[in-house]
Amino acid sequence: xxxxxxxxxxxxxxxxxxxxxxxxxxxxxxxxxxxxxxxxxxxxxxxxxxxxxxxxxxxxxxxxxxxxxxxxxxxxxxxxxxxxxxxxxxxxxxxxxxxxxxxxxxxxxxxxxxxxxxxxxxxxxxxxxxxxxxxxxxxxxxxxxxxxxxxxxxxxxxxxxxxxxxxxxxxxxxxxxxxxxxxxxxxxxxxxxxxxxxxxxxxxxxxxxxxxxxxxxxxxxxxxxxxxxxxxxxxxxxxxxxxxxxxxxxxxxxxxxxxxxxxxxxxxxxxxxxxxxxxxxxxxxxxxxxxxxxxxxxxxxxxxxxxxxxxxxxxxxxxxxxxxxxxxxxxxxxxxxxxxxxxxxxxxxxxxxxxxxxxxxxxxxxxxxxxxxxxxxxxxxxxxxxxxxxxxxxxxxxxxxxxxxxxxxxxxxxxxxxxxxxxxxxxxxxxxxxxxxxxxxxxxxxxxxxxxxxxxxxxxxxxxxxxxxxxxxxxxxxxxxxxxxxxxxxxxxxxxxxxxxxxxxxxxxxxxxxxxxxxxxxxxxxxxxxxxxxxxxxxxxxxxxxxxxxxxxxxxxxxxxxxxxxxxxxxxxxxxxxxxxxxxxxxxxxxxxxxxxxxxxxxxxxxxxxxxxxxxxxxxxxxxxxxxxxxxxx
Length: 634
Hints:
7% strand; five-stranded mixed sheet; Serine Threonine Protein Phosphatase 5, Tetratricopeptide repeat; Heat Shock Protein 90
């Protein structure tokens, strides 16, 4: 396919015709995948998108969750190549949802990794490390050697950015332990690049250059343009630091050439900014401003926080040097904003780092305690020996009797201590067992609900009547709202209470995805970081599901855009208020919510009563409700 794209396109078309004759939509979708891959090789990106979308339509018709997940992932990668980070992230999230439905562990891991990469590009280290670790857990579970190497290398980059080089090198050493087994030049090149980055940050420039050159040698044999552009940039960046400007410009030029070919705007932004820095150091202020502005514009276009910070820093120095103080001030203000943003996220990343190091520190504490106990026992033995030696000088019988008494008391104390420790260990084991059992219960309930939802989807696929089909879809949405609670429960530390901010945002995202409207819908979400249990979250999530579903179905007819609002706040001690609705065409103002006999309205009232709450409609444009409720103890 790679060497003769036109031939590949011909055979993919032949494959489609045969699949069409057999009415095999799964193979028709696969044929479109091959066509899209062929157009991708030719860099005809509109055709790539068109054929992936066609494949997606077939997978949706046959309710193939794994196929849908894979296609969304391929589309997400396409948008990522074009530096459309927001759209790419949306499609990776969709890919993850379908991979979870299909229990496609490889698909889930790949989505976690790529979502993490986007957050990394945007400077959000908290989310980055979280997704990388989820990916690594699955890669180790399914023994994906290449994947383990790549993810450990990615995690290493996070720790390196926090100047925790020991942890960074630890993850790289894990990657290296798989080098011979992997035999994958792309992965090997990535590991060498990561080593080079760490050594450069540590000031070991010669060692860094040695590893970057090893990386370049490996990646040149793969014809991986993305990896090649990255490698050229790293070498150019390092040579700049080594004050070898001419060589640096040469390698950066190679990176720019490839980045233009593959449409990597962030890569271009980084290279332009580095050229700006070189011109400034050589005294060419005008050149520095020109390159810096090109880098800044591209970085702002794709929302790359790190690249914006670096470009604004160089421009600040260049404008200041040329006496353009007003422009210098603006660039300095931009630099400070970006730097504050990055530092705040790095602080959160440091908190995550502590979390992952907690187990190590716990084991160290236990080892230290054991060591202290051994020292204490040793001291006791020495004291007994001193007492025996002293008794030989005069009060032998008295001292021996006293020593025997002390020894006996020590034995009793040890036995008591051992009993206490055994009881503590038993209690700890029982606690861990209960936690594992609760996690298993939540996990199984969530999985069972997903199965019920899938069965409803399969049944709905055999129904032609639209009204009946919509009823099945609404049932699936309600099941999703409940299943998400249990999914969050078994992932939380407390197991019985979860953060409503995360849960409600996931619910909103899943409802939005379910309806996939061709309209520009924005969200006004204001949800506090508090924790509720399932007795509160089940009715609350179902209320939100019913009202938001109505918004998607009816509020934005004949409109190109709209806004959905969801706000939760505490108004009294243990009493909360939720504002939810839309700015759409609105329900009739004489509509009496309590008198409606629709199932959705009845459910909203039932669930509101379960929360000891009240509901009233707010008189304003669109349809907006105010619901007061009291969290229920679990």
